[in-house]
Recover the amino acids of this structure.
């Protein structure tokens, strides 16, 4: 039906990724770091390799023109972009598939689809860019439904209105990052929200999952950019009023932001825009001691200078991305503004950096295009290319994954040590080989950082899923035991649900069930996500259904 | 029982307020502005003037030591601090009274009180500082309850823990602003949250009502300072995890922030602190054209300079507070920092001010203590004294009140004109005399200001409540019709409920009822507030029960 050129088994479009030289270099470097792979590499999967079950449900005549059961469409909507997704695709291990994919062309189409699904007990999976790395779009809904329809919002991709005075735009939820930016750029604006998934994720997905942009401080979360939001629920349409701020009761927007499709389908939002930055400066700073660097970042984050970039990448991760020899952690510090030169800001920030012994070359600071040069530039390139690495390592049985959290500063040193150890120990224990675990900060707050952990391990194609699951469970347990959040910006999905349930207050869970009972009384929306009590009673779905949970 | 020296009929403590000279000056100036008062001035009310009904319910033995039905205590907990409250007190017009006032000394006491109330169908009114100006603490709960107990949290007034590294503190909800600041000051911190009610309002009240601090931009709302919150509900205790940021589902904190006691009693919270500012600069800037000044503020608010003060006070309000002759609007612009001199920030801000024709004297900027001098200082003094004015004007039949909202910038000019006109027209129509209506901005956002309107009118002691109600309804209607929020930081309470119901999506109201059904299944918590569906079915309570609502 819709020719989505998206790879169903990995990140990006078909034909996109690393060239032969890049992938060989990556594979060789991984072999050096983790040991050579064992067994035969898996081949790239084809649609024909999969024996999709016959759809349990078909669309009514009135909606048939929006729907397809094409096998490729079904595969694209069966797998997210997590390690487990890529691994299962390479192994031709088919998770649950949607029976139907619908591509609504209007909000009314969405409402009609929900009305039909609600009447027929068909589960509805909202789908933005499909970039979930936590089982967010996997249609693992259990046995209680007549079928599953995935509602892919890609055709609702327009910026409908731009308010030049208040710097806001009314935007359809299905638009991807680049198309969104392209539509507002002629007016001099940017949403300035750049999650790593930017190219293949949508506005609606960002809102539904509380996406974090890649800016380090102050306004970076999608939460802060939403001025109002419109959602089609099985009970009807809910739209909040456009307001710059309000103190009238609990925020209606904050109920929808992070709801992961459990209450309805976000169709559009008024989003706060920014002027395109005119002034930019960025610099890479080395630290011989990771925790000293973290102290510097803490001071910076408490200074109210609000750097736009303030990352910390530990020494091993810095080396892994080709920006060092492993002896120094890297801080990437940047300021930008559409209004004013940022010299005074950077000057003060560098005074703080000096206080903590940061090492840097001022020449990089003043160079034109400095934010794309030097260590900071190397980091930026690695950041953009990273999502493509996985598909070249997974077929050889290498596990590579990331997880992210946040924690207050006073607990960070112990937290960091415990998470690093728990993950490394789990890798060694389950695979029999030492792995690599690294840490960076993606966001910093006055009261704590958002640490992002990357790990890689040598396994085999046959065992890699079981190994990954055991490591994932161990890392998630460690995060929960050390009082972090199970996700800072990747969302909960199905994979994080067991720890989300431990993290949130039971009464909040009950409160969200109360919300669900009003907005989605028959429980057709994204079953298993966030609030579905059945998950607690019947066991977790998706990857976690096969995990050995503590 | 507890000797609260608080005036039950007005703002502040007994004995506090204006001296004879100040009040005579105020009265004379008001007479010049609005015309001399008619009729006999009302006398200051005494407890003995009120014939309180016999309490319908008494405490069980186990809770008796926490409770009182002392008449003065009951009066203090019968009236908030709105115009209507002061007027009714002077007129000896007693609104609903609580049967009991409980002063819990621990969280367990709160839990025990709720358990008893839940079992006996007694309505529970949480009470912080009692500074509500919108019927938030008035026990107008209808006829469906065995009685009403007001739970006054004043004894839970301790800072329990300070985290020096993450700059956060665990604080009991009953603490008032000054006591809170006094307890964290020795550690070099401030919560830096200064609502106008600061002296007589509590942390729990700020959280429950989504209080706005008096800082103009970026982190100023209590919403942003809450790191985690703990609430006793009839269904049990709900506490969120301390996290600097999280993307795990809808925010549990944001459900409680703004819930106005409808779900439970907030007992404590981890709050983000700030270092005490070391660098401060502030200046008053005149503008001959209000809307030109608003344009300047819009540009400032979109500059990401994040001024700590960025108010705009229209020409009439500037004159009323003694800082001008009525020919110029006043912008109060300030920066402060605990970390760095703010020269570069102020310099760029003044360039923007220059672009819009702002008039100012640079000498004030550099003067020591400049934030307390000049027009900015005059405004600051008026701001702090203003809550005391009302009790000296109300007995003479003068109406003075304020209301506040927010609106996006592109709609502001028309919005402002419509609200000013609707309010002025209503005053003239109902009182027969022209009144005064002025406007200032209390907060500014990149996408819009928070306009704060003040009005005063000449009425008579006999008619002032009816007159006020008609003006209040007209102003509220105008705000709603022009798509503003019915409150930006004063809260909803009972007085704003009819327009809150129009403002929020019906499905959000339903969702909040779903929450209520889980956290407060028997509906004992602050009936009539925010989510109580009975209000829609049975009519509004409090002042609005006598209003002629459109």
């Amino acid at each position: 039906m819709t020719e989505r050129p998206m790879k169903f088994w990995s990140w990006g479009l078909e034909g996109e990724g690393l060239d032969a030289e890049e992938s060989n270099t990556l594979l060789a470097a991984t072999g050096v770091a983790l040991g050579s792979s064992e067994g035969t590499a898996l081949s790239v999967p084809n649609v024909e390799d999969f024996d999709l079950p016959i759809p349990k449900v078909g669309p009514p005549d009135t909606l048939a023109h929006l729907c397809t059961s094409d096998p490729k469409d079904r595969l694209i909507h069966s797998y997210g972009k997590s390690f487990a997704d890529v691994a299962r695709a390479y192994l031709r291990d088919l998770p649950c598939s949607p029976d139907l994919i619908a591509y609504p062309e209007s909000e009314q189409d969405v409402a009609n689809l929900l009305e039909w699904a609600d009447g027929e007990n068909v589960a509805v999976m909202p789908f933005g860019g499909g970039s979930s790395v936590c089982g967010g779009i996997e249609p693992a809904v259990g046995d209680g439904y007549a079928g599953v329809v995935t509602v892919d919002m890609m055709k609702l991709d327009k910026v409908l209105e731009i308010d030049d005075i208040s710097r806001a735009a009314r935007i359809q939820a299905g638009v991807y990052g680049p198309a969104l930016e392209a539509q507002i750029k002629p007016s001099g604006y940017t949403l300035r929200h750049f999650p790593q998934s930017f190219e293949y994720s949508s506005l609606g997905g960002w809102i539904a999952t509380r996406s974090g942009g890649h800016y380090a401080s102050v306004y970076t979360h999608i939460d802060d950019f939403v001025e109002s939001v419109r959602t089609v629920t099985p009970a009807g349409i809910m739209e909040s009023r456009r307001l710059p701020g309000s103190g009238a009761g609990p925020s209606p927007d904050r109920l929808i932001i992070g709801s992961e499709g459990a209450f309805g389908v976000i169709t559009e939002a008024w989003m706060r825009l920014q002027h395109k930055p005119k002034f930019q400066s960025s610099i890479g700073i080395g630290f011989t001691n990771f925790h000293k660097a973290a102290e510097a970042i803490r001071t910076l984050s408490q200074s109210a200078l609000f750097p736009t970039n303030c990352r910390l990448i530990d020494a091993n991760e810095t080396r892994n991305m080709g920006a060092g020899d492993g002896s120094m952690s890297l801080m990437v510090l940047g300021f930008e503004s559409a209004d004013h030169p940022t010299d005074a800001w950077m000057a003060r920030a560098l005074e703080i950096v000096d206080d903590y012994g940061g090492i840097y070359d001022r020449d990089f600071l003043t160079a034109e295009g400095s934010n794309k040069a030097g260590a900071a530039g190397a980091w930026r390139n690695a950041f953009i290319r990273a999502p493509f690495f996985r598909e070249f390592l997974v077929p050889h049985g290498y596990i590579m994954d990331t997880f992210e959290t946040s924690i207050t500063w006073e607990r960070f040193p112990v937290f960091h040590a415990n998470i690093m150890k728990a993950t490394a120990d789990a890798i060694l224990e389950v695979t029999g080989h030492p792995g690599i675990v690294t840490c960076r900060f993606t966001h910093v707050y006055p009261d704590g950082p958002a640490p992002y952990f990357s790990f890689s391990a040598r396994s085999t194609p046959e065992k890699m899923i079981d190994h990954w699951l055991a490591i994932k469970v161990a890392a998630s347990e460690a995060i929960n035991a050390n009082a972090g959040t199970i996700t800072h910006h990747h969302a909960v999905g199905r994979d994080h649900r067991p720890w989300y349930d431990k993290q949130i207050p039971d009464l909040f869970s009950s409160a969200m069930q109360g919300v669900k009972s009003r907005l989605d009384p028959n429980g057709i929306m994204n079953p298993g996500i966030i609030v579905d009590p059945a998950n607690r009673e019947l066991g977790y779905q998706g990857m976690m259904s096969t995990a050995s949970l503590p």
Summary: The CA atoms of residues 11 and 443 of chain B lie 24 Å apart. The longest strand of chain B covers residues 448-458.
